[in-house]
Fold:
Amino acid sequence: MKVLVINCGSSSLKYQLLDMEDEKVIAKGLAERIGIEGARVKYEKIGDEEIVIEKPMENHKVAIDIVLNTIQDPEHGAVKSLDEIGAIGHRVVHGGEAFAESVLINDEVLKAIKDNVEIAPLHNPPNIMGIEAVTELMPNTPQVACFDTAFHQTIPAENYIYALPYEYYENHKIRRYGFHGTSHQYVTERASDILGIDLDKINLVTCHLGNGASITAVKNGKSNDTTMGFTPLEGLIMGTRCGDIDPAIIPFLMEKENLSADEVNNVMNKKSGVLGISGVSSDFRDLDQAAAEGNERAQLALDAFESRVVKSIGAYLTQLDHCDGIVFTAGVGENSIETRAHIAQKLASLGVTLDEEKNNVRGKEAIFSGEDSSIRLLVIPTNEELKIAQETERLTQN
Ligand code: AMP
Structure:
């Protein structure tokens, strides 16, 4: 069975076509600048050169139409006809409390995803556009929704409730939801395989460290707590997001800088994080370079990022009666040998040790803790698309 995985952002659409026989990607690409001047679709049939189609795309439906036509193009296509695609899997950011797992999309499910727009106004609308476009263009192909929040629906109330008046939870659904769930779930399942520990017995701290970053305490294979909250703004310091700050800073800033609520929100999401501290870049490679050249604020941003990561790992270890491994994934976690080494060194008081040679890997699965380490350290490259494709196959096979 071939599965097309679609991940719609506000003006972009990432896609991958996988052959589930061997779980290999056969084509992939990205539609960019949807609804904006300069729109284009990048398409790569694996093994061939990437092609770029520049064409105005007024909305996601036009973008998906171009993608579908390219996938079955007689010259560049990866399939002869769209009939070869057995199902479509969509990444959907917010499932709210309605979805604790992936689900086959029908009218009722689509309505529930729409109901969550209120708590995910930036994220769910493009996901809905993607689902509706596919429904029109491929009406007979089953579609599955995989939610970023679903894995975290096992978090107990004591960890998801905010200490605000309880009626805000009841009336406005304000609680911790957590995000990056597909990634945390994928690396949890891989760690269970790698370490040979049953999924329902494994305890982990999984660190998804990329441009967006979150850490999850996994207890008996299930999410027990996670650093992102009501939105993906809470928790760690990220590329451009501030993560945890004293909430009293918000009204203070609104007054001092004469900013509206929207403007402060924009500052916290787009101008903060390591970009805000360093003034250099949101990209960790740029920060590494600037710090190496003596830029003190770039160094401060990296130190602050690592400090927050270590603090969260420490906190989550207290939720687990034992920990089978600390897992590093996403852009920084998979690739930054230095960041992993610094974090391991900062965990030395807990008996964590590092094998420098084994840590010398980028983008590959590895166990890089020392023989005598109290907790194993693992690198596991995440693969959210594969997880979505697996879920899509599982729910549509029959
Ligand atoms: P992601 O959001 O998971 O794609 O991660 C993107 C982040 O990973 C960017 O800030 C990159 O700079 C960072 N990254 C990728 N490769 C490296 C590397 N070799 N060293 C440090 N950071 C890296």
User: Anything to note?
Assistant: Residues 114 and 128 are 7 Å apart (CA to CA). The chain has a mean pLDDT of 96. Residues 210-211, 239, 283-285, 288, 330-332, 335-336, 362 surround adenosine monophosphate (CB under 6 Å). Residues 296-317 form the longest helix (22 residues).
